[in-house]
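pasting input
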Amino acid sequence: MSRAAPMGGRIFTPRFNVLLALGALSCAILLWRFIVGLGPTTGMNDGYPWGIWIAFDVVTGTGIACGGYAMALMVYVFNRGQYHPLVRPALLTTALGYTVAGASVFVDIGRWWNAWKVPSFFWTWNFNSALLEVALCIMSYIMVAWIELSPSFLPKRFVRYLEKALPFLIALGILLPTMHQSSLGSLMMISTKVHPLWHTQLLPLLFLISVIGMGYAGAVLEATVSGRAFRLDPEWHLLAKIGKAVSFCFIAFLGIRIAGLLLNGFPGFGANGMTLLFVAEMALFAVPAWLLLDERRVRDPGQLFVASMLAVLAGAVYRFDVYLVAFDPGSTWHYFPSIPEMLVTIGFVALEIAAYTFIVKVFPILPRPARSNP
Amino acid sequence: MERRNLLKVLFAGGAAAALPAAARTKRTAAPDSVGMLFDATACIGCKTCVVACREAAGLPPQAKDGMHDVQTELDGQTKNVIKLWKDEKNPAAFTYVKQQCMHCIDPACVSVCMLGALKKTAGGPVTYDKDTCIGCRYCQVACPFNVPKFEWNSATPQIVKCDLCQARIARGATQPACTEVCPRKAIIYGKREELLREAHRRIDAHPRFYVDKVYGEDELGGTSVLYLASVPFTKLGFPDKGTRSSPSVTESLQHGLYQGMLTPAILYVGLAAAVIRNRKKDKEGDE
Amino acid sequence: MPQRKLIERLEAKGLSRRDFMRTATMAGAALGLAPTFAAEAAQTKRRPSVIWLHFQECTGCTETLLRPSHPDVTEVILETISLDYHETLFAAAGHQIEAALKTAMKENAGKYICVVEGAIPAKDNGIYCKIGGRTALQILDEVAGNAAAVIAIGSCASFGGVAAADPNPTGAAGVPQLFSKKPVVTLPGCPANPYNLLGVVLQFVTYGTLPKLDGLGRPLFAYARTIHEDCPRRAHFDAGRFADRFGDEGHRQGFCLYKLGCKGPVTYANCSLKNFCEIDGAWPIGIGHPCAGCTEKEYAFRTPMFETVPIQRPTPPDTYPPIAVEHPRPSPVAIGFGGAVVGAAIGAGVMTARKLSAEAKNEPGPSKEA
């Protein structure tokens, strides 16, 4: 089993500087946003009160970041020790992704100065609200993920104290995403404005299953990209096996979704744009599910990469559809993110990548390469 | 414990947590709760209610196209608006409709509000507390009537919606501003039960005049603001989404999932046990 | 006898110039005539002959003419015209009055004004109304046929009125329905407003023309608008203040009588603007009784007195927002930018995949195996 080690190397590469610049741009835009409000800076409106900062940064972003969750499940619950080296980098993606999601929530809410009341004013908690559960879970999970990662950052003596608590933290790190990722699905159940092909009581289950698949695909992507960037030569065979997990999840997703729709007589199905979108979405799940089912189909790393990208795309499209595209407040309302809004999201993702690059270069996250680094 | 059994327990817990549970009981209106009745056939579109509401709520006039005060839609500065429906085929056929918060009996906005900034008071009105609100706008996503609006152009935005003039009534008024000024008594205020009876009396007295339905009687769990019209309600922008309130569907799920945090607790115990066992196995394997 | 001016004739009768000028000005204003009308009318020497026929009538229209006294409309009219035949006002009867009729018709053939009061029965050849052995139909045909102008005064003469109410056993109808040789000015009302007749007569006497008429022959100066449009109680209607029962508080306060069956919204007449005599408020609504719609064929003597009528509301202007208000569409620039970003991401992904495949091909080895 290879051990984790810092990758070393120059930090402020041109690519890194570009990422920082994008991050700085988003900070400048956010300063403007806090002064003038969300209206002039984003495309959100009363018809579409949630935009890409929620639908992408939070819902999709945490979904992709669920690599840590998925890998922890695989390694610590199903005891597939051979994947162990992949856990820590996946966990970093998770910690960073959830931190970005948390930051996105903070800049999205209108009365942010009251945000501290969410975890502390427990007597005002409305337990009927799925969003409360999501908020508390995400807040906790951000902490748990960083704590789980902390052995990479902390001196050895602190790590020994952590070792005792680690199993409980790991278990928490599996429980929390299970809760809030399914709740991200139940969030949209309250709304009568979601198209019937997406609006179902199965939303929590569908979100959970798809996110586990997305998480595995995300872990594969992360391993692939970082492997290529740091010349790590990942074990493609192992990754292809993880791909299989994606496949199982997606097949379960497709089966449950279709069964649910069949039971309701496929409401809203007909010769219309939404049906077309539904079919495209299902195809987007089916293709990577089929590709990743047999290792031989993804023998080539490039093919594995494409299949994993498609899998992540499928999960992302599904979430976008539930939150934005299949959300219909009335035909006279329209939404598309504004350019500053998109730049903020891009900036956040850029900062996330920059942070990842920085951390893996300085701290032991990625497994030491099989061959020495030139 | 056999690993297989453990896994079964975990999966069962997880799956059960994600499946819908039994529906919770239907909420009904409190006995003396108040509401309003709007009779679209009596409304002459004078918009006195719009002006009165604006003044009572301390909101500024909406200047537009050189006109002093033109309210076209509920928004961050409009809690009450009059809209016009015209029959495209027959211009002589038209009706006005007043839009404002419906003060649902089982409000979706109240159900989703994280810290309870939106509350369903015992008297009937749904009220808003800006000090508890964090501006997440989930209420806007949830409301089937698109009622709560947001002050998008403010650095300190609030959610804006009708609250049946609670401040005014606290200062001694007997009814909301709109019902007080309506010259045709098209919008009236009173106990919801009595208003419902009056609405049905009107339908029975003029059977061919009204659509045979009091909108809000049981739509989406029932609302405190009731509507009468001579035109189908869907034409007037009212949603046709059945009689079950959305909270009655989702809350059963939430409760099923998290009854006293039991399922999560069980799941957690199972997970922790699995992790500890597996790590022990690894250590034993290493030795 | 040398022709005297109208004003001289009136002054001889004791009517003051001021009274006449006032009346004529009022009538002229209602007719929409020039301000000089009163002066011109005063100076006119023309004094056309009027033959006033009575058929199925109650004589209410004549009586209403006699009621005002300040000024005495009857005096004015009687001096403005030469009343050569009138069954109620003439002392003569029988053969004497028939002779008067014949003489008047012969002397003024083609120049007299024929005023008809009352409906004409048409059933069974019109035998249900005979005067001097001749049916009303025959008399109408003969007298109106030779007249310069025909005026049907009152609802009965205009469209049948009460005489034509269901089941209409005599087949009663108004003048326009039975006589089409000449244009007929109808002045419906039960009774007709005497000032309307005055206006028509004065215009004809002064200028020799008849006022503009609507499709039913009613002068527009009096019948273009509904009672509802000019009702003094309209503010109560608009504010929603109604009398619900005779004698209740609302009734005592003079509130709108719509709920008591007022036909004002569907009745074209000028009773609300010009009451029936010089006493202010001398008209049905003024004394607290809902308008009965007596000028309207569909409502008078046909719909129940206290049944409410539908209100025709004006079509609202477009300043009202529609049910679904259009909201701003996203900018094409933003959509383009978004598309470009997504495209770039997909492009980067494809390139990475290609590079991965290429690198894998260049590095065969044990690392590929488990």
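fyi The domain at 34-241 of chain B is CATH 3.30.70.20 (Alpha-Beta Plaits).
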